[in-house]
Amino acid sequence: MTHKPERFLALDVFRGMTICFMIIVNTPGSGATPFSPLEHAAWFGFTPTDLVFPSFLFAVGNAMSFTMKKFDNLSTGDVIYRVLKRGLLICLIGYLMSWFPFFNHTPEGWVFRPISHTRILGVLQRIGLCYIFASLIIYFVKNRTSIFIISAFLLVGYWVLLLIYGDPSAPFGMLTNAGTYLDKFVMGDDHLYHGEGVPFDPEGILSTLPAIVNVIVGYYAGKFIQEKGKSYETIARLTLMGALFIFLALCWGMVFPIGKKLWTSPFTLLTTGLDMVIISALIYLVEVRASRGKWTSFFTTVGKNPLAIYILSEVLIISLWMIKVGDTNAVGWVNNVFFQKIAPGAIGSLLFAVSYMLICWCVGKILDEKKIYIRV
To answer: Of 293, 294, 301, 249, whose CA–CA distance to 275 is shortest?
Structure first.
């Protein structure tokens, strides 16, 4: 993507804010429970942390509104090849990250981590799949109204599938919804996420359907900003549309609860609505009021290399967990001797998370100064 800091700085700031907050919520310090807003909702409900991942998808859509212009001069075959290549490469990177570090340390020494117990889906895999489907829908279906109908079909269709094929007594339960049944049938328990204590995947196959809409809405928001420019009309219309989405989400949520881990359809409407409101606020601050400076450059530093910085943050923290220091690991040791001594409890956990984010930011700063921008 060609970087345009003057005209579209607000979009770059939004992308950078998303990555920074994602790192903070993904890497809390050990030894203390984080502040509740920095944790995901247990099942139904919504916290600020739940907004992070859908905002990443929304930002992917923003970026597509720039890059898909290049498709006009390519043949259909070339477009499909490029979309599949990029999307599947992102999926492969995500799978390798879930498999990393490829070996387990046992009392007998290092042993190869079996593929048979490796999680297949995950955050990057969802990003890759949503990018593929959203790109192909937008490319082949030229009419906006038709795309909006398809988006509505994905949201309503997901709801209907859960009601029809889930357990009639609990169609939206973690282990009784149609998505979990499908994941278990296709991939098996050993290839699912086990962070909840049971085999369940929050980035499962079926819940990818409504997530595609997050990317589509992000695409049209970015396209609208490009067409209308930095004006009060842009701000007003985006804000009103965001408010409408939020209102629809809250109404629908009365019968189809809002929940990130099930990625319910009202959750998609709520998060895209909030993202449009946030983008509107950033356009006002950055473009209209021209409130620029160190705070905007801080976020754009990360926003120029979003995927690379995210992968770094995940690989580095896993590596630190592997380093043994006494009876704990490097992360636990740093928390015990430093952050939990300075500020015990949730504050120390937050300080660790922010400090870790700043380390990743420094890498982004080095890459930016050297004009190195890693694209997939």
So the answer is: 249
